[in-house]
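step 4 of 6: structure.
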Amino acid sequence: MKETITIDPITRLEGHGRIDILLDDAGNVLDAYLQVVELRGFEKFCQGRPVEELPRITPKICGVCPGAHHIASAKACDAVYGVEPPPAGRKLRELFLNAHIAHSHLLHFFALAAPDFLLGAEAPAARRNLLGLIDALGEETGRAVLRARGLAQKIQAIIAGHAIHPVAALPGGMAKPLCADERAAIEEMAAELAAFCEQALALFETRVLGDRTCAAAIESDTYCHETHYAGLVDPAGRVNFYDGKVRVVAPDGNEIALFAAQDYLEHIAERVVPWSYLKIPYLKKVGWQGLTDGARSGVYRVNSLARLNVASGMATPRAQEGYERLFARFGKKPVHHTLAYHWARLIECLFAGEETLRLARDPEIADARVRVVPSGTPKEGVGVVEAARGTLYHHYRTNSQGMVEAVNLIVATAQNNAAMNMSVKKAAAELIRGGEVDERLLNRVEMAFRAYDPCLACATHALPGRMPFEVRLYRGGGLVRTLSRGFSCP
Amino acid sequence: MDAGRQVWSRGRRSVRTLVVGIGSTILGDDGVGVHAARRLRERDLPEGVDVEEAGIAGLGLLDLALGYDRLIVIDAILTGAAPGTIHVLEGNDVARAAHLGPAHEADLPGSLDIGRKLLGAAMPREVLVVAIEAADVTTFSESMNDDVEAAIPRALAQVEERLRGARDP
């Protein structure tokens, strides 16, 4: 007889998800699946619309990553029309995207990740949240977090009209230039943001890595998979969120592919699996071997640690120092430890802060020429950026009038789908023994996928709609027990 | 220029009530709160009432709500009731609405608690959610279910009753 444990919905991430853990008679883990809800009809929704509407439409797919969709979509439109934005247009997009990522990474760490480490994975759920964290770190730190995230949002709003509903990026560039006062205001805010990002990384390195229990969890085999990694790199091989080529490295760190956005279909295929609505992208040339890691499996990972693993370094000085400390600590590259995604995220957050400041100080960014108005015949194009959660592909095809005929999006969370399932199963198998399950233990299972910062709203959508306070245990298909879960959000 | 003051200067002292419609207008009924807010904005509203739109709640709502005395959120909800049913939620119940629960960072009550704790009196003291039962929030569409759309005037009647009946805090 099998027993099923359902964690439904997953707490502390955007969107509706559910984890099913199947136990055998002895109460040990047979299998585990991350389930998500399907969003339907996006391509149909887009068909027949002018392609230049998509940079305004696609941010509405997801309330969490609107900025990344906005920029990926604009880049896809550039490609459809065969135009290159002028330098100021490109730099404004980069500045916007970096502020977006700094905001996202800061929020993820302080609201979702830090409570597990700084309050303890087994702290009472009612306390293991942002409010509990503020109690532990002090109100000054809490105010600094709120202020830093507010600055990052404000920078985006100045550039794109609105942080949540950005409208500035168009095919060929941006709708409006930055005036001198706006540039100066952004520079001042970016300096403060970058300084706070550095404090956040220092906090992680002293309080999390300096704690024996946290460090042991990060370095443990429970949260470890030897997979391929993918992410954008600049011509020097360094992490870049806005542009570059996608580099793929094997589990041993050797580069196995370096491709331009428009060639993504040669390298990435999508697998449909019966237990999930969310398709699973994998490396086409390596092949699909199922949910397994190793050099022969086409499963690859994206997001922070993946980007650091594929890159030769960071383009800014303080982030580069953080990058070097991370790989020195593990003594190897790539690093396969999933909880190290949190560390990599804060290194990237510092990079985003430094980039925001560097771009704000670039005199060219306030140049009035921010757009090349497209004049060519539109056809087909791919835009790729690094969203906070990983590589984001937008692929559009239009008729000669620029009306959308086909759309394909590959979002970051989908690319981590296989690895998240593997991580949940491995953590569950190592932590759940003899059917002994409680809330604290389930939180340690949840930590396995929380490291990926999954945004199921992107891949699917947010619809909790009911009180997510329960874990249900089934035996032989019937509900035998309900665990009341302390809810993780404050 | 004080960048921080610029960030936190949204609250306009003369304005007391903020109405926010939340949702995505490209996901059918998911956007009913935003559609309702847009219609409300066209009406003759009492002095001191502002109307905004948002995609999700979480800490971002603090940026909008700072400086207001009262916050009224219009949102979709999925409880299993008939599409178009109006739910008026107060207290911790507000997290039941579609976009006010466990979002990426913190639910609405949690966000407001954090705001009150860290930002003091600058947060709304009263929070009310007028939620409209949705039918389909997973199919991309700019139109809503008929029953859901028809519920908007009733939802707005609830909002306006609160706006008119409000005493000065």
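step 5 of 6: annotate
 - Chain A touches chain B through 60 residues (CB under 8 Å).
 - Confidence is low (pLDDT under 50) at residues 9-15, 458-475, 482-490 of chain A.
step 6 of 6: archive
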